Amino acid sequence: MTEAPNPVAGSIASLKRELGFRDLALFYIVSSLSVRWIATAAASGPSSIAVWLLALFGFFLPLAASVLEMSSRYPDEGGLYVWAQKAFGDFSGFMAAWTYWMSNLPYFSAILYFAAGSLLFTAGDRGKALVDQTSYFLGFAVVALALITFLNMLGVKQGKWLNNAGAIGSFLPVLVLIAISVFFWRHHGSATHFTWPSMQPHLNLKNAIFWSTIFYAFAGVECASFMGGEIKNTRKTIPRALVFAGILITLGYILGTIAMLIAMPSDQINGLGGFMTAMAQMCRTLNIGWMTPVIALLITVACLGAAGAYLSSTARLPFVAGIDNYLPAVFGRVHPRWNTPYVAVASYGLAGILFAILSQAATSVKGAYDVLVAMSVITYFIPYLFLFAAMIRLQREPAGPNVIRVPGGKRVAIALACTGLFSTVCTIGLSVIPADDEPNKPLAVFKTVGMTAILIAAGMAVYVAGRRRQARGLVQLNAQPEAVQPE
Predict the structure, then answer these.
(1) Quick check: is 95 in a domain?
(2) Residue 97 φ/ψ region, left for φ over 0, alpha for ψ in the -120 to 50 degree band, beta for the rest
(3) Structural domain tally of the chain?
(4) Backbone phi, then psi, for 227, in 5-degree steps?
(5) pLDDT digits (tens, 9 = 90+) for 132-171
């Protein structure tokens, strides 16, 4: 029987391996280290330091260990999609990819709103006039996302420079914050009193969303593995880059939060503009106001780089799903000259733009920002259930000689994955709890759970449609006459 030609059969093979150790380490930094989470943590006071440590050992280390080993076992394009598929079958692989794909749509607007707010500090007093202008924030998000989408359609080689610049823009302001805060503390003292009682976290309804947000801040190191087919020597490069970047990310979050609390009382910090407000205040106090617009520009570049990193990596999920025919085959196409999954990238960028426009309707800038962040949390953590569960299940599979295992072997790997799984379940539960100032708590819970259920149901419907498409293709293939062999 002849086989029907598959127009996307060689799609992954045609991708170019452009990402080396430096690129990947910077990719991890730009996708996981964000000054907006430092501001969010500092707004909750000294107790956030303990929460950072809890998130580090309860989520980040298990996640990093799982990504390290799974990327070494299955260094394929698609990452999470492939891992869940290997462990639990096609349906789980698709749903893990679907929820991750969908959950990142609010992320683009949230991070680009933060970039737009930071950019206003470069204009000084003139920028204050745009603080409450929704048209400015929406216009910035739409234009920036369109440019990022086009850049990533051109290729990984072009897109990685935005990611690399974003990583530098992420880390340099944190270093400056730490350095200035030391000088500030020595000459002016600390704005926050660090006492043992103040550093103890208290679990209540008000802090529930905050805890889940801090765990959310440590997420992101898994997305580089979605581009496994575009990383040089994937098995060796990912572990080295992940360990190096992981140390910098952890130090950046914890030391950055302490530094911000030295500069300002927690009740004067907010998540949307808290970092730049703290930096501007310290710079004015130290008579180095010229540094404020420089830092603001760095943060803007960091946010653009983060958006680019997530768009390029997450777009590989519908690309692989298109190759498997769970999405229309057009998603699996690779541009003949750019060697990129241009349809998947363009579609994801357009979806992000549409989401930004819809999410801004009939709400304020601050309200839109809070809604975007809140919508990301619960849906974003569902794929981690698949990731940690796959890590546990795949321990029964033999590891080849080239596989890099978690130190301690199978027992440690399962223990870490169980810890991450437990933390993920708890974080999802905490994110459902409405805030204290929510006027209608039952309705808020119903909306959160209901929207998540609708998203999952939509993914199941797309999967069923894909299975039917596969079945029709198989019927057509079997209906073709066998080729006549020459005598």
Answers:
(1) no
(2) alpha
(3) 1
(4) -105, 35
(5) 777 888 889 999 999 999 999 988 888 888 999 999 999 9
